[in-house]
Design brief:
The structure is a homodimer. By secondary structure, chain A is α+β, with helices and mostly antiparallel strands. Helices cover about 35% and strands about 25% of the residues of chain A. The mean pLDDT of chain A is about 95. At the A-B interface, β3, α7, β11, α8 and α9 of A face β3, α7, β11, α8 and α9 of B.
């Protein structure tokens, strides 16, 4: 059975009623499982992790995006995370028995459907991109909602892959595409120095000559009065979670700043956690075959 | 469905034909799953991890012990690990839906059956013990095969709980009982100083005023030319794997000795591994709900 994961990010992380309304689109539906959802008030953003067979998953995603368009108004949105839309970014990831081509196909089917149903411009990114430069999510998202709206209005090169020529007045636009599994991992610093968090992010990310397969942003968590290095590890065989942690810790230490805590957004493959324990305890033989919970399934 | 785990330790870790012959008793049997088996040539010992419903599990364990009695001769046994029998120690552990009382009952049924079938003296230990002092496996096993044989011959207080009055000439005796889940965890040192390994074990184990719920022995791994602190963590909520590792590392460092590696014998609950990653990465939110592999099951 082909299994696809979808990890849509919606621009609502504060209003619990709206959060649940959107998440509910993935509940009580045959062939789809809501695996996780978490909302962050500072980011003002929620991340859903769902998995399912392509057809029922498509139906759930279309429904959820419709609900996001209905209840989120980007013009009133405040939050530290960059965004272009109510349904900001919707990645599809091939899991068991599925290939990247299956995820690409599904992303385009969903794009066609939601763009028509909700007058929502869709930019295809990563493996689904139809233009080389759109492979990079950051390129599409540069400047956020307002700037993308201006680019679309003025520059024909910024025509969306699906949907209307102009940005949706309240729901913005959506980046949609297929990609490999990604670990969203944040390290919080015992500091409120945003410049430091940004400098660390710039140094450790792949684009800055840092860790391979690592995207990073420096963000401020105002409610907690601290800053965060927010990372996407796009290949944990290249950069393990512990390597990302140690890199942030080392750079922070140079500025005399300590790590406060770290956190996962969404899910992680178990293998990526085992690799951390293997590293710190110099484990010779810790692998999936040693885990009682998996053996009993 | 009640599920019981059995982790029998057999005194054969070198002859692969004998190892497989014994392990095979747990294969291809409805209601029983062979989860893991590992053999150590220095210990000259194998550890099987199996789980199943009480009745079929009992049949498999009885068969395996019979095979161990058949092919292992303790009089010719060499190995660094203390032992009293071919089937040295046979613990039963309650898993899903099972209570400790179920594991105790099963241990006594198996004890009755194997003692009659193979003329094997059985000493009930831990939760199954019928005498206070026999709760402690080390008490039963003191001095090993030869010494236990002498005690049984001379001292009526050393009558076995099941089986004949005298030790089995080639297969010795078996300690059998119910206990909580235990993590068997070894830390290898970059040293051949057995006295150091023994001193570290004596210092960190519960009996020496060290870590709670921790049993430890210092052993020599002659084939590798190193020494090992071999531990049983009987409650990983009391002493986590990382705490055991750090305690050994710290004591070894005082003698200028480094840790070479660490290893699990048998299986571990995933929660115990997550706790290690949580500790070293200061994780705020790493729990079973974050593990993709479990969510997809």
């Amino acid at each position: 059975m082909k299994l696809i994961e979808c990890v849509p990010n919606f621009s609502e992380g504060r209003d619990n009623e709206k959060i649940e309304y959107i998440a509910d689109a993935f509940r009580n539906k045959n062939g789809v499982k809501l695996l996780d959802h978490s909302a962050d008030p500072d980011h003002n953003r929620m991340v859903i992790t769902a998995a399912g067979e392509p057809q029922p998953l498509k139906e759930a995603v279309v429904k959820a995006i419709g609900r996001a368009v209905e209840v989120i108004d980007l013009r009133e949105h405040q939050g530290v995370h960059p965004r272009i839309g109510a349904a900001d970014v919707v990645p599809f990831i091939p899991l068991e028995d599925a290939e990247m081509a299956d995820a690409v196909a599904l992303s385009k089917e969903v794009a066609a459907e939601v763009s028509a149903a909700y007058s929502l411009p869709i930019f295809l990114y990563e493996e689904s991109a139809q233009k080389e430069e759109r492979k990079n999510l950051a390129y599409i998202r540069q400047g956020g909602f307002a700037a993308l709206g201006e680019r679309m209005a003025k520059d024909p090169a910024w025509k969306a892959d699906f949907g209307p020529e102009h940005i949706h007045p309240s729901a913005g636009a959506t980046a949609m595409g297929a990609r490999k599994f990604l670990i969203a991992y944040n390290v919080n610093l015992k500091s409120n120095d945003l410049a430091l968090a940004k400098a660390i992010a710039a140094k450790i990310r792949t684009a800055g000559g840092g860790l391979p397969s690592c995207k990073a942003l420096g963000l401020e968590l105002k409610e907690q009065g601290i800053v965060q290095v927010s990372m996407n590890l796009t290949d944990f065989n290249q950069t393990a979670i512990w390597q990302a942690y140690e890199a942030v810790k080392e750079e922070a230490a140079k500025a005399g700043v300590e790590v406060l805590a770290s956190e996962l957004i969404g899910l992680t493959p178990l293998e990526a956690v085992l690799e951390c324990t293997r590293h710190y305890l110099r484990f010779e033989n810790l692998d999936l075959s040693k885990i009682l919970d998996l053996k009993l399934k």
